[in-house]
């Protein structure tokens, strides 16, 4: 395995997926795998973490910075680039061990062959820095004009986000400062170019392009290279200024591209040291898995103390750059097991956005904290009431994701408690985590209903993970997660002493602890969670069993339009048993120790043919439950599907008429969980690591690291024995 993916594909239809697949990123920014000459129509983006803008009533979304990689060539007066000019040869490579993107493209001109080679990295050592080199070679005396600079014509879905741009172009230096519409935030991109060959040069600022032109005549076979350092910072980045960016660029120019690249590679090697998973006997699985981990590492906010990861990572503005339950339920484990500081950063974001969650609960008339379904700055819920556009009428469709996906708050509790249980670190709980769990429990408590004369609590009018069935009662997943939230709140409230007097007093001042304990204990005991019926099947929600019993292909055959939305009032799936993604199976996976194996298996077999897997979050839940049922062979194709979510073409790019393309970090996290927890059999009992492997037949050996209780362990699984050894750091 060479830790590289390559393609010579240049089909314009797949520009979007290649942009995702060849992405490089460092948690602060993500650079789509597009070519230097691409204009906004080809969807290039330097996508920024944690900074948003809203134009009028359009959706608020994260910013794409002006594109400092923009470069193209003219030879003998004619421009050469893709997708316009048919090349002789073309290849793009992503070296995902070192997070290096490169391309090589040759064109035949009227007088000979001209070749462009480039390489780029989003520095891991200095996250504001992008390094790039670009080389032109011709096999004749070509008159070359090489244009390089910053393109302020950015690709945006709901823009334009910049109301003003100011630029400066000096010799070998250029900068653009763009000012956002909503809050007047600034995004500054500065570059320094080094061209160590004789040339004529000229700078310009026109049509939102800050450009340098380098003119030269090539010696046949000689390489003409420019190297660029690009610094990006925004008004939200404390301590950043043009002076500081200038210093970074000076250092880049002094030490040189190769030296900065070396620092970047070293930083990545550090990440891989404990972050990789080695598999012997199945190179394809090892490649897809580590490629998935590459994506997770590329978007991990290791530079921040309180930040999360959007559902489409840093691959663009899809899903409004918002944070979903994907982070806690699908991505968190990877960071928790390999780099707990990042896991803490992710969960601290939720603690710090508790205010937004309390406001949302209050807006709906609930108590406590109802987290944003699509969380942006401050916990603001970017999810709109009309989140899908109908393909037939072009009208926005009323969806209830924001109002009714109550299970989101429990995901936050799950993340906080999993962090605390596995790391043994109480600091997050002490710094607001306790209040977060209590407020989420208060939220669920305010949702509880009791039928007249009844004894059990129910939760009505919800959407579970399967979004195709809206506003149902007693969704098994939601109810079980609400019960879990009550259980966790009880665990914390009964053990306040462990947090010390100051924290205990503060909680006792804010809450009537005995009263809450009484309520939460009662709720945990009496909240109804649908139980297996005589056939062993758990009904996904009240009345699910009465819906039309068809399988996925039958429902698919009823579609009138390929982009038609399957859910909502008239969706093809809505009145059938066909579901979008794992729902009961997700619940069983999380609570498998509460159910006999045959119940897990029966439900797996029942729901699988009825699951569209229309969300990339689905396959890994089936994979993991299959492992828990002792079926690694059945789990394997679902594992591969998750691990290859960003390698394969054919992922869903549309929800009705809304573009939802981008990377799939939840699937990447799901692939990791399946490998390590499913096949590797990693679990934790009272904070202690247990490993009980069941590898797929062709896997001869598996090696990885796990952090637990403040220690790091090397796990080595071989047919003859499994060893778990503490690592001295
Ligand atoms: O969080 C998911 C949801 O479960 C299904 N639709 C896409 C969201 C973002 O990945």
Secondary-structure blueprint of this entry?
Elements: E1 4-7, H1 15-21, E2 24-25, E3 29-31, E4 46-53, E5 61-65, E6 71-75, E7 78-80, E8 89-95, E9 100-108, E10 113-122, E11 129-138, E12 143-151, E13 162-170, E14 173-180, E15 186-195, E16 200-206, E17 209-217, E18 224-234, H2 242-255, H3 257-275, E19 278-280, H4 283-299, H5 326-338, H6 340-352, H7 354-363, E20 388-389, E21 396-397, H8 401-404, H9 407-423, H10 427-447, E22 449-450, E23 457-458, H11 476-494, H12 501-510, H13 513-526, H14 552-557, H15 584-590, H16 597-607, H17 618-628, H18 632-643, E24 654-655, E25 658-659, H19 665-679, E26 682-685, E27 688-691, E28 701-708, E29 711-717, E30 722-726
Antiparallel strand pairs: 1-8, 2-3, 3-4, 4-5, 6-7, 6-12, 8-9, 9-10, 10-11, 11-18, 12-17, 13-14, 14-15, 15-18, 16-17, 19-28, 20-21, 22-23, 24-25, 26-27, 28-29, 29-30
Helix pairs in contact: 4-19, 5-6, 5-9, 5-19, 6-9, 6-10, 9-10, 9-11, 10-11, 11-13, 11-15, 15-16, 15-17, 16-17, 17-18, 17-19, 18-19
The structure holds 5-hydroxymethyl-3,4-dihydroxypiperidine.
Residues 311, 319, 324-326, 465, 467, 615, 617, 666 line the site of 5-hydroxymethyl-3,4-dihydroxypiperidine.
